[in-house]
# Entry
Amino acid sequence: MGSCRLQTAHHFPKFTNSSEAAPTCSLQASAESSAFIDVLQRAPGLLQAMSPRTMATLSSTSRRLRSLVHEYVTSISIIQHNGHGIQYQIMELQALTSGSWPHLRCLNIKYRAKLEAAAITQLSKASWSSLVSLDLSRNSLGADAMSQLVMGNWPALKQLNLSSNRLDTAAMVWLTQADWPLEELHLSDNRIDLKAMQELIQGSWPKLMQLTMRWNKLNAHTIAVLAKAEWPLRQLDLGQNQLDANAMTLLSEAPWHDLESLRLAGNYVQKQTHAAAIARLCQAAWPNLVNLDLSKCCLGGADIAGLCTASWPKLSSVYLGDNCLDEISMTYLVKTYWPALKFLCLCRNALDDAAVKLLMHSSWPQLEYLDLRENDELTKDAAIFSSNVLRCAAVF
# Structure
């Protein structure tokens, strides 16, 4: 079973009677088509239940109906749960690309199986001048598919999601040849190793501001290469990788002075290197850093001592949940000077009443929200006391 979802912009143009010509056509539509057009005018949500092939069939019924459908669809999602065969994929995408879709801005295609290169060839034939976002995640795409995808003529494409595929070094060679003005690139859960990273940083994307690379087994060697990328990154997600103290050192030396958000959640490294990793990370000169995620990193005790030395005056959200933070950890955390901090997540740690009460000694004048959920040894009274002293909302 599959589904197709379409979104429309604006309201459909109002046709006063069945003989009135559509704006792009001087021919009269048949009575049947006119009746259907009247239905769509009153219930445009019906478009959301149509597959691309159904849309193609309807569009061929009359020029007036084609104009109605194509002119007002801005977003299309095709979700297939079993992938079907290659011929089905080709037919499906042929139907999709046969339309002009002048206002199409967002396209999401997921076959949950291998989307064959021949099907991607059909997709790349479309010239969608308004396409801004393309999501091809979870399609088992490889280098052969990428060699076809980069042929797409999409001059406005800014957001590209290729997560959960099978992209490797050969695929990166093709990707960097794409002539798209990318601002967001999502490559999580692929096969990005050292050689693949060396190819990736060759991408000429002077406006690339967001990069997501979770679940790629990145290490110090790949980070050393990534740090050489000449992109004006503002959001970087390197969660669920293998970043140790050496990787953090290299990361902190990267020339991303406009970096605003850094996600490092789920980087499990050897316990003895935790403190060194955090200390080296905090040497980074990121004056615009706003969000920092260090959740699920097995941090505990004095591991976060290095946070005291960080100079991030705009830091407003810090995620330290799902670690092993305790009373010792809090003695270091309260020494941080984060004048802009508004959100602090300490959920699912090892905090007790004594640990949480230490938070009253912090210097976070702007704190608004404190997450203390699922700290088993923490009592309700201590949590309420701390939130009252800090003058913030707390959940526990």
The longest strand covers residues 73-80. The first helix runs from residue 31 to 42. The radius of gyration is 26 Å. Residues 183 and 208 are 4 Å apart (CA to CA).
